[in-house]
Structures are given as structure tokens and as C-alpha cells.
Amino acid sequence: MSTSRRTFLQYSLTAASMLALGPEALAASSKKGTASAKAKLKLLVLGGTSFLGPAFVNAALARGHTLTLFNRGKTRPTLFPNVEKLQGDRDPKKGEGLKALEGRKWDAVLDTSGYYPRMVKASAELLAPNVGHYVYISSISAYANNDVPYENESGPTAKLADPTVETMGPKYENFGGLKRLCEEAVEAALPDRAALIRPGYIVGPDDPTDRFTYWPVRYARGGEMLAPGTPEDPLQIIDVRDLGEWLVRVVENKLTGVYNTTGPEKPWTMGGLFAACKAATGNKSTKPIWVPAEFLARNGEDGEGDIPIWAPPEGKNKGFHLRSIDKAMKAGLKFRPVSVTVKDTLRYFNSLPEERRNKMRAGLSPEREKALLALWAQEEKPAESSPEPPSKPAKRKKGR
Ligand SMILES: NC(=O)c1ccc[n+]([C@@H]2O[C@H](COP(=O)([O-])OP(=O)(O)OC[C@H]3O[C@@H](n4cnc5c(N)ncnc54)[C@H](OP(=O)(O)O)[C@@H]3O)[C@@H](O)[C@H]2O)c1
User: Fold this and answer.
1) 30, 220, 263, 354: which could form a disulfide with 281 (CB 3.0–4.6 Å)?
2) In whole angstroms, what is the distance from residue 216 CA to residue 221 CA?
3) How far is the CA of 237 from the centre of ligand 1 (A)?
4) What CATH code is carried by the domain that includes residue 322?
5) Which atom, in ligand 1's list, is nearest to the CA of 137?
């Protein structure tokens, strides 16, 4: 058996049994495999119960650290019954606001839930005297442009005309500029004690968006599948568990500064994604039909329509899926095989209740996919009758 196949099986079997057992079993079990940290830290998470938060909590518990979660108690309130929870709101104007954090000390804080500078400023300033290190989860959308392949952390950042705006905007166009302002608020409150993390698409089990999940699920359904662009179109994603584990190293090693965090380690492509989907699903009946970006753009799929994650690698999006991640890799960011991410994502989705599975939150509807494919077939090989024009996409939210 080849080494890569052995690694793949090891990952798959462990992940399968762990998913069945739940998050705290995962933490306890990875304790066996992961050396516990020499210095045990007291860590605060502003958030902690949706997607990235639990991945960090699991990894931190596995390293023997002590956790406190601060949130409103709305999202999965029964998760982590043995971890301390403080209730409040990121917005100091709402209810008790940040009161529960007053007078408490932690070695480090991970902020996964900061979207508006006024609120991030409030938590950063309140915590600055009482925490050693502040790790803020920003986004790769904090950059002004995506047109330069392999750009590193020194690229220009997004700016908002009105820095006081407290809405994302109808197309999520304020998201990146707001994230940048949040970064500035953290850096101002804790100069040289802050890590500003800029992830690309975070994917894997528990992903509430279905943006990446759509592809393994669609591939598993079989038949003719609309494949956007070309098999060589680049693709960057990061498995939530890889990011969660690395963030624990960030707090243990007190890393500061800006880090692009996406993956995988070696450049990956849409063709690579479908090869991984084929391996994960074992489905040989799926036939990807590669449809050129130019046709898709003419029909409302310019990278901001219903087709998720993919972006045509040209013009303003030339570097969208080609950010430099050298700095984070030098700082220890590691990646599990993409085949494991695909397989675990599919297993997670299939474990959801039927009602939820029937309401995919991203991707082409079967009807729109069929209509686009029919139109494309017509354009490639004009026939006598014209197919129905495809319906317009519901514009998807920008921002990773
Ligand atoms: N997904 C991606 O592809 C992607 C890419 C780049 C960057 N990011 C960034 O990564 C982060 C991931 O977030 P996540 O949702 O996975 O984190 P999480 O920590 O797992 O979940 C969000 C937490 O925030 C809490 N929360 C929400 N609103 C709150 C409020 N007003 N006051 C107090 N707590 C509040 C929620 O609990 P309650 O509801 O109970 O309050 C929940 O515990 C985000 O900052 C996102 O912008 C994501």
C-alpha cells in the first residue's frame, strides 16, 4: 500500500469514528495522539460554538489548555458542557454587553466573532490590561484587490468610504473593509501583542455555509455536472480543523503580525477537487462538463453568482485563489490531505437531518444547472430549437 493511501485511510478512519463520538471525545482522543503543551494556558474565546470556534476549542483542550467561552448562549448552547461559559454580547450597547469579561485575566484571547470595529475596539480595549495576547480572526477579504497572484501580507488593504458603517451592505461589499478596521482596532489596543489572521474559505465538517460542501454533495448526486472554467483553475481552501490546530500554536508561541491562512500546501485546482470528490464518493457516473468562464459570465455566473467558491482566474480575480501562504507555513501551519477534507465533509453533510439536507445553502439548484448546461450545449452545437433561458442567480454574499 502506498504511503499516501495509508495516510488517507488513517485519517479517514480516525475522523469517521471521532465524528460519531462528538467533539469532546475528539478532544480527549486527540490528547493521546497530540503531545500536551508544556505550559498550560488560560484561553478566552469570544464566540466558540459555531464552526471555527469548536475546532479551536477541541484542539486547545487536546493540548491541555483551559478554556472560557464568551457568547450570547444562542448558538449550540449545549456544546462543551465542561467548559466555562460567560454570557454577554459583543455589542456593549446590548444588554449586559461585555460586563462578564470585566476583572478576569487570561493568557490569550481568540476573537472569532468580531465584525464591526466599534465592538472589536470595545473588547480589545477592555481586555488589553488583562490578556497577554489577542488573536483576531480577520479574512483574506481584508485585501483591497485579488488581481496579483501569490501576493503576500504586504498587499494593499480594503478601505471603506464610511468607517462607521454597521451593515455588510446588500452584496456584502463592506465585509473586507470592516475586517480591516477591526484589525486596526485590535492592533491599536494591543500593539505588538496581536495576531491578525486572514483565512481564505474555511471548509469541512460543520461548515454552516455549504459553499464548499456543495461540490462533494453535487458530485455524489451523479449525472452531468456543471464544472466551471477549466480543470486548471486554481482553488484555495483551509480545513477548519487544520486552522483550529494551528491557532493553538499561534497562542502557544505568542505569534504576532498578519498571516494569510489558506491552503492546501501545494497549489490545487478545480480538476483536483473533482478528482478528490470522485475518490471520496466512488461515483463513476458523474460527468463534469467544463463550461468556459466567458459563457458563465454572460449568464450571471461571474464568480459572484450561484456557483460557489470558484472564481475565474483572470482580471480582478487572477490572484483570488493564489494568495501566498509561505509566512503561515513557516510558522507551522500544516494541512491534512484534501481527500480527507472532502470525505469528512460529505460524511458530515449526510449525517444532517433530511430537512436540512434538502435545503442546500449554496450552489446551483438542479433546475438552474440543467438550464445552463442545456444553453451551453446549444451554443457549442447549435440545434434547431432553443432551450429555455436559465433563471437569474440569486447573487451570493461576497466575502470569505
Ligand atoms: N467561513 C469562512 O469561509 C471564513 C473565511 C474567512 C474568515 N472567516 C472568519 O472566521 C470567523 C469564523 O467564525 P465562526 O462563526 O466559525 O466562529 P465561532 O466562534 O465558531 O462561532 C461564532 C460565535 O460567536 C458568537 N456570537 C455571535 N454573535 C455574538 C454577539 N453579538 N455577542 C457575543 N457572541 C456572539 C456565537 O454564539 P451566540 O450566537 O450564542 O452568541 C458563536 O459562539 C469569522 O470571524 C469569519 O469572518 C470565515
Assistant:
1) 220
2) 9
3) 18
4) 3.40.50.720
5) 45
**What are the mean pLDDT values of the chain's consecutive 10-residue runs (400 residues total)?**
30 34 40 69 98 98 98 98 98 98 98 98 98 98 98 98 96 96 98 98 98 98 98 98 98 98 96 97 94 97 94 96 98 97 98 97 98 95 62 62
Amino acid letter, 23: P
Q: Whole-prediction pTM value?
A: 0.90
Query: In 47-179, at which residue ranges do the beta strands (DSSP E only) sit?
Result: 66-71, 84-87, 106-111, 131-137
Domain around 361:
5-374
Q: Is residue 9 part of a domain?
A: yes
The pairing of beta strand 106-111 with beta strand 42-46: parallel
Q: Give pLDDT, residue 381.
A: 76
Helix (H) or strand (E) holding 4: helix 3-21
Mutate to test the pocket of ligand 1, among 112, 181, 186, 242 (most ligand atoms within 8 A of CB): 112
In a domain, residue 387? The reply is no
Tell whether 204 is covered by a domain: yes
- Residue with CA at minimum distance from ligand 1 atom 25: 47
Residue 379 falls within a domain, yes or no?
A: no
How is the beta sheet containing 234-239 ordered, strand by strand? 202-203, 234-239, 263-269
CA of 288 to the centre of ligand 1 (A): 34
Residue among 67, 71, 141, 309 whose CB has most ligand 1 atoms within 8 A, to mutate: 71
Instruction: Decide if 149 contacts 322 (C-beta within 8 A).
Output: yes
